[in-house]
Amino acid sequence: MSKVHCDEEHFEVLMPQFASYCETIDSIYRLKTDADDELIKIYQTIENNLIQTKLFSHDDIISVLLVALRFNNRFVMSYYSIYQQIIDAQKNQIFNKQQVSFFNNIKSDFDSLIDQDLKQLSEAILSDDIELFISYTQRVGFDINKQFSNKLFPSSANSYSLIELCCYYGAVGCFKFLRSELDEEISPACLQLSFLSGKPDIMNECLKYQTPDEICMEYAIASHNIDFISFLMNEYDLSINVEFCGKYNNLHAFLIYLDQTNDINECFIYSPIFRIPSLCEYFLSKNVKINVKGYKDNRKALHNAALCNCPKIMELLLTHNAKVNIKSKNKKTPLHYAAQKNNLESVIYLIDHGAKIDSKAYFAETPLHYAALKNCLETVKVLISLGANINAKTVNNITAISLAAQNNNKEIVEILITNGAYIESKDYKGKTALLYASEKGDKDLIDFLISHGANHSSHSCTKWKSGYCKFFNFIWCRYQH
Known about the structure:
disordered N terminus, DUF3447 domain-containing protein, Ankyrin_rpt, Ankyrin_rpt-contain_sf, DUF3447, 56% helix, ANK repeat, single chain
């Protein structure tokens, strides 16, 4: 993709227009209070600057809270407080079920950040209580090599050591004790996590032993700390990742990237993620190509508008001749992206404006496949009601009902069957929805499938692992009575 260069200083033009947007988003990602009166003010600012301006829905803000708290989970209950204010103020609104479920379970998740039997250690690190921390390390059976994991950490796929947790929470005293008394080494994760806590003593020590990498820049962007971003750019020649700017709602960093690179096309592609129509209009005024593709995955601006559920921006783009069925590198259309995020407004808008409801991605996945895969119940209902092929198959013969069964999603399975899904459909491994349900051990779903005609006697023991054979034998015996 060729770059479009301009002599105009974009930052000076755009930043004053979007200052309140940036300040409000910053207040979410840089949350440092648990005082009720301050949290009420933050919520009111969000309501006034982001929601009442129609840039974000209440669900959108809840999604932002969920992203932000992973990089700042010391204040997870403060994020919960803002969430609860949203829920209380919108009693008649239906919210995203998965997000509501996450927040409803958040207290127990936070309590388990560190195992219950290590509660003292957790309190010591969170409060940087060095005396309490030392007393714990002197206990019989203390394991310096223990790793900790939790879905509220920046990367739920990673586990962290004690010294890494000290870097994340900014526990300077505990960090220094681990270094001086227990000779703990500084890992790359230590430096990366120090960009989230922002404690100079920890960061400076880590910089003696580790060199900043792209994850450091990602965390600097996620922390909404422009000083850290500038430091990494100027001292270590690390570039701002424009995709991370969108992922973490960092418009300030995005505008710095634009100002430094003049890469109008790439910035235009990601501009819909910020949900500001006038920002997209700014790029259109610079004569960008409406269907220009991104460097990484060939996504277009319309893909990102669908991903972020922005019908107003989609309307703007289509008015400028964006192609409604344009495909990304993996051959996904904007409708695929809208479906996988359960973005009902975008799904309906795109179909109303010519999106092909059964358009096939790289492996012949339709939007219905993605909706079933991602447990998007409402989108499944809408796609079916608008005529989606309920028995469409991927190149591996996978249907939506198989994906729903793999996810133990009885509601989606029921809707699919009610609307004519073939219950005995087999994928390339010869597996049916019933077999996938059996692998998951979901008794309710198994009972439901069998009660709706799934053939539980057709699976020969010579075809399956012994565990599956025993299971089907159990089903066979049970349903002969």
